[in-house]
Amino acid sequence: MNLKNRLLLILLADVIAITATACSTPNKRAESPMTDTVLEGSLNDDDSLRGGSKDIIDEIITPTIPITGNDNSYENMGDTPSIELTPEEILEISLNEKLYDANIDYNLVIKNYLDMDYDLRSPMKDDYLRAIYMLMLNSGIPIQTYLKELHIMMVMQQIPTCVPEDIWYASFGNLIVLSNGYPSLFEMFIDFATFVHEVSCEEEHKLNDYYAYTCKKLEEELKLSLSKQ
Questions:
Q1: Tell me, what's the pLDDT at 82?
Q2: R_g over Cα of the chain
Q3: Residue spans of beta strands (DSSP E) within the chain
Q4: Distance CA 36, CA 30 (A)
Q5: Cα–Cα distance measured from residue 101 to residue 97, given in angstroms and rounded to the nearest whole number
Q6: Is residue 28 over pLDDT 70?
């Protein structure tokens, strides 16, 4: 193996390591598919999971990873072997391509968006999605950790229900910390959770009898979850 190919192998290994570790609604709250009591746990001011401000990483350098047509693998470089990507890695790369914005003032965008009436939010939604993504990316927690909790939110929001506090914290502990005390976890993250789901799901989506966003896959996961209780 010549020196050029050895350097490419080292570069690819570094990229894999970085990737693995980094891993319009109506204006009436009553018309939302979930009320304040749905998907909301009992959040006390002294709960340890509500963390206050977190240290922010000032700069994030995200590598561009070449992808081949449809084989879910890194593009071969010289004699470097092809490496299969997991669905989670593919989703993470896709979100990065769509949402990464190093220049956005994500804290200000999030504050302005959540302070707006529902019927005024639509023009700012794209900026809000980028802001939530950058908030997660700069939190110091692997993005895959948040994606797992967002998926749980998408499954649970299909049917109105109250969640016991222990299940609430076990399911959404990292999102709770990230929300920094915002009173509605659902309101803060449901737009982003829906966007992430749509990026990775090819099923037809609709509103169910509870006016909640759903599809065949989400319905199946909800049935499976309820059957285990």
A1: 64
A2: 20
A3: 206-207, 213-214
A4: 9
A5: 9
A6: no
